[in-house]
Specification:
The protein is of the alpha+beta class and 439 residues long. The chain has 2 domains: 92 residues, Nucleic acid-binding proteins (OB fold (Dihydrolipoamide Acetyltransferase, E2P), Beta Barrel); 298 residues, Bira Bifunctional Protein, Domain 2 (BirA Bifunctional Protein, domain 2, 2-Layer Sandwich), CATH 3.30.930. It is built from 11 helices and 18 strands. The longest helix is centred in the middle third of the chain and has 31 residues. The chain binds one RNA strand of 76 nucleotides through strand 1, strand 2, helix 2, strand 11 and strand 17.
Length: 439
RNA sequence: GGGGGCGUGGUGUAGCGGCUAACAUGCGGCCCUGUCAAGGCCGAGAUCGCGGGUUCGAACCCCGUCGCUCCCGCCA
């Protein structure tokens, strides 16, 4: 017999069906046993008249909550039952996997354990419908991203995560033994995305792991996370990259709203707003002035940079003035940007770069890249870098590489913003942090 | 890496110098009942993170340590 999902039971009144799921609650009475069965699509009451089968009854009596069951029974329309006015009269039951009792915690209790404890028992925590929906949304997000990319002629790449030389600064880098030498875990696919531009791929994306040996303990950092990266050729400036990103994100939001808007409202209490394009753009120079005018005091050593508090302040300014949840902060000073960001024509102290702030959280950094090898090398030297380890990268641009740019976006950060989650550890399947390597 | 906060039965909390450590939930037993956030009674379960100190007396005060957490730095 084929399995029936709980959501489809209404259409199977008076038929015998097979259900598979978890024992959410057992109410064992003198003559009757009620098993509340859960599968990913819902809950249903299974009723057993004990005198029918006393052996089965005593079997059921011993079942712990969360036991995995296969149940066969007849679907009955019963207005008395509060749970969807529906019940299944039990005919037979197979215990697929008994749940030990007591459970480490009850995922369906009124008060949940602290997040850190729940992460210890992540597979129990993930049984909550809340988490199921969360990852359905993430799946749709990624699907929508890909739909949009494929419509726009993108190619997917998978760049290596084992590196022989540190890309960029060398800080925040995990190193490991690699036979007789040292290897590093990629803290960005940056160089390889650009290599694809040199390869003539023109438009590429990658969704893959990123590693940062960054000992930060915040609600928005992880040492391993999923990066969403893209790179496009033949751009005129970073404006082209921003224009692409906002349209792409608008599409992603629209798709998520289309498929999960109702469920998100119900479960997360969030009315998903598909963002209007274009997103507001504020050059950093103006952003600093805006903060000043609002009385926000930036730390003295910031030199054109903005701290997270300032980012939140700008976000609320944008909300007030533009009624928008997103804002591009553009034209960052060279001091706070990597050497490969192209400089702004007319002001060599600024870069053709941007961050995307969503509800006050930084979710993206992007830029037009410097594709002229001499200038790139010069900028690297200015930053105090040695050319030798990055020479292979500079060489990408020696044999005909189009002007290009792109961005990187944190998948979990986007999910966090979209569902208004307080902590990124809830927005990721398995969290990795400085003191968290298990499970 | 810097600063603040918190560690009490399985879990969530209360107690903050005199406790035989309280409550809820979960767990075990019994009773009642077509139950449905079920109800009632009984019971097991914590040397109050760990180490040291102050005190007649420490879960409570002090120091150290470990863990967690939040903020800052840094970032996606």
């Amino acid at each position: 017999m084929e399995r029936t999902l709980i959501k489809d039971l209404r259409g199977k009144i008076d038929q015998t069906v097979k259900l598979q799921g978890w024992l959410q609650t057992l109410r064992d009475q003198k003559k009757m046993q009620f098993l509340i069965l859960r599968d990913p699509t819902g809950l249903v009451q299974v009723a057993h008249w004990k005198p029918n089968d006393e052996i089965l009854a005593s079997n059921i009596a011993s079942l712990g909550a969360e036991t995995a069951l296969t149940i066969i029974g007849k679907v009955i329309d019963n207005p008395v039952v509060k749970l969807n006015q529906l019940e299944v009269q039990l005919e037979s039951l197979v215990v697929e996997n008994l749940a030990e009792s007591p459970l480490p915690f009850d995922p369906f209790a009124e008060t949940l354990p602290a997040l850190d404890y729940r992460l210890d028992w992540r597979y129990m925590d993930l049984r909550r419908a809340y988490n199921y929906l969360l990852f359905q949304v993430q799946t749709t997000m990624e699907m929508a991203m890909r739909e949009y990319w494929l419509k726009h002629d993108f190619i997917e790449i998978h760049s290596p995560k084992l590196m022989g030389t540190p890309s960029e600064s060398g800080a925040e880098l995990f190193s490991l033994d690699y036979f007789e030498r040292k290897a590093y875990l990629a803290q960005s696919p940056q160089f390889y995305k650009q290599m694809a531009m040199a390869a003539g791929f023109e438009r590429i994306f990658e969704i893959g792991p990123v590693f940062r040996a960054d000992p930060s303990f915040t609600a928005r950092h992880m040492t391993e996370f999923t990066g969403v990266d893209l790179e496009i050729s033949w751009i005129d400036s970073h404006e082209d990259v921003m224009a692409f990103e906002e349209n792409w994100l608008q599409y992603v939001y629209a798709r998520v709203k289309e498929l999960h808007g109702e469920a998100i409202k119900e479960t997360f209490g969030v009315e998903l707003v598909v963002p209007q394009v274009p997103f507001p753009r504020i050059p950093m120079r103006d952003a600093v002035e805006i903060l000043k005018s609002r009385g926000y005091v930036l730390p003295a050593d910031k030199k054109g940079d903005i701290d997270p508090g300032g980012e939140r302040e700008i976000a609320s300014y944008v909300k007030e003035i533009y009624d928008h949840d997103f804002v591009f902060l553009t034209d960052w000073p060279i001091g706070v940007r990597p050497f490969y960001h192209m400089r702004l024509a007319g002001d060599e102290t600024l870069t053709r770069s941007f961050d995307l702030i969503a509800n006050g959280l930084e979710i993206t950094t992007g830029a037009q890249r410097e594709h002229r090898p001499e200038i790139l090398a010069k900028q690297a030297l200015e930053k105090g870098l040695h050319l030798e380890p990055i020479q292979y990268y500079i060489d990408f641009f020696r044999y005909g590489c189009p002007p290009h740019g792109g961005f990187g976006l944190g998948l979990s950060r986007l999910l966090m913003v979209m569902l208004n989650l307080p902590n990124i550890r809830e927005a990721v399947y398995i969290f990795r942090g400085p003191t968290r390597l298990n499970p």
